[in-house]
């Protein structure tokens, strides 16, 4: 069988939280393998480098969103973007991972050769230089949305508006919203973050939503964390371990409760929200979602800053459908009009698979939307490649690390058995009878709109979607890594 000289054993695409974590796991468990990280931007950080809107922060706790091998030291669970990217840069530098990153390297396409058992990456470096890099294994750590183009909101008449229209993904750094009336179109985590931060300088900030979200307050340090810190003052490693597992366990119990007892969860969430509302804003319709908790992402606001802004009178909420935008107003179907100086379209992300890299096998393009994901990790019919997808009801990094540990185990087993290629395959029975499931278990509009550009999961066997961290990490350590795949030895 023909061989092809490779530049690296492993090429990782993306230097965000997933790519950095993968670099660490490779160094830890397979130090004999060479790797590089190709990053299209000028710095590491992914989301936290790209987004710069006021108050950008995590929507998961940093005790689990942070790396398991470098504990989060701050005493606040929810952190703003600049602090997160500082932590990521320090973590990468501590282990020399930053020296493995090639910045301003945009991967145009990746082609796998079944003959040579190698990947060839066509790369544009520094905007002009064309090069080809080869590897044995391909790790896709590009997230799940389009970095170049935000989701364009379908708002009738928005092009006629004479004021400023801003999107959080491409926030104008010179935008002055002091004493301005701002309307944020959307009700997700970004809108919930923007309202209290814009309200510090704006005259008024209104969230305009078609339907509400669940918004839960998270104290900077709750009583359990306070107790853990004081009881474990003598051992920082023990303290970090307990804090991390507290944040793994509590969200897990909450989501299981919500999935199994949705009406009880609705009532509990509703009571918590009602207690924080100002008397001028009724819970129904503004804070009473039509869906159950965790059917869409539950938004967190640190120390209840979102509700504090509403109680101050600087922030408010309007629920309704936009009829049209005029040069100086937003007209709702109800007949009400809003008169903003600035409109912010916080209407979600444009989903994109593999960062837009065109993937081919022996030059034949793949229709990713027709493919299934094996164990939430590998793509059907795509050899020697893994795809990182985190959780929608827990922190992204938990899922990313479960994937990294499973892939490292697979690579070790490939070395042990002399295997050159592993490729997931559905059986003929599965192709005919297996029920399809969406990749992301969310009912959000931006997720529904992306079903034609993302792979699928199945209802049975090795093709089922991710479930929860405990199960996935046990699968990574001890689970079956052979069923549903072909392992091809070298000659």
From TrEMBL:
One of its GO terms (molecular function) is flavin adenine dinucleotide binding. Keywords: FAD, Flavoprotein, Monooxygenase, NADP, Oxidoreductase. It comes from the Eukaryota. Its cofactor is FAD. InterPro entries: FAD-binding_MO (IPR051820), FAD/NAD-bd_sf (IPR036188), Flavin_mOase-like (IPR020946). This is FAD/NAD(P)-binding domain-containing protein.
